[in-house]
Design goal:
This protein has 196 residues and is mainly α. Helices cover 57% and strands 5% of the residues. Strands 1-2 form a two-stranded antiparallel ribbon.
Length: 196
Amino acid sequence: NALIINGTIDSSDTSVVVETAREMNDANWRAAIQRYQRAREKENEEYRKQLLTYLPENKITAREIDKVRLLEEQRLWEEQDKQCLYTGKIIKLTQLLNGEFEIEHTIPRSISFDDSLANKTICHAAFNAYKNNRFPSELPEYEEILSCIQPWIDKIESLKSKIITQSNKSKKASTKEDKDKAIIEKHVLELELRYW
């Protein structure tokens, strides 16, 4: 719709093709997705418990009522090892809760339309305003940013290595059960890799 409104495409000669993922028919993929989602739900429950210790229910402010946003902030804060990925500065909990740091879209939402958690980070509000609608690679500080995200890069490489290991395990499995377990584990790792 946005492309039609902007005049980028003509609705009279444009067709939309919706494809469904074939792997969804695969029992191992379904099992992996269920396992991945259960793990995320368990993590979210832990983040909720942590938030309640930080924010006693009788002291929740108007900003803090938005539980989903708080949960996202908590998750991203933990995943980023409590530091800003752009500046490397440690983010104190009080700074996170008082709005000094905020959620930003790594690939600008106005460009990608991606509002998923995989496209979000916690960064200083002033840096977010400075970054504006630019990609991190377009910033003069890009080299420093790369050093801040080295743990991210390491995690991605580790996941890739684990996927290869699980793939080899599935090929060498002697029983269908062992093969399916290895395939499911590989798929879970692939889902994790997509996120990171």
